[in-house]
Specification:
99 residues; 4-stranded antiparallel beta sheet; Alpha-Beta Plaits; globular; alpha+beta
Length: 99
Amino acid sequence: MIRHLIFLKFKPETTAAQIDAIAAKLGGLPAVIDEIEDLEFGRDVVRSPRSGDFALVSTFADLDALKRYQVHPAHQEVLTLVTAAAEHIAAVDYVVPSG
């Protein structure tokens, strides 16, 4: 199992409407991308100087499933919105330990 984590820092000019659009599109992904086993996301509530603004955590059966997700047109559509709104994007993908 692969866990996919994304952390976003939005540009200062990114609007609440842009963030809401990203969240709405992300929320619709599990209905159209079968490879997604689990998906959760949200805005940071602590707002410390080291905090990102938004996080996404998703789970995939294996690395091949993650790769299919990454090139899926629905994911690419969300990625376009994220790229336009984000000042910085960090990602970590790791194998979930079994047991």
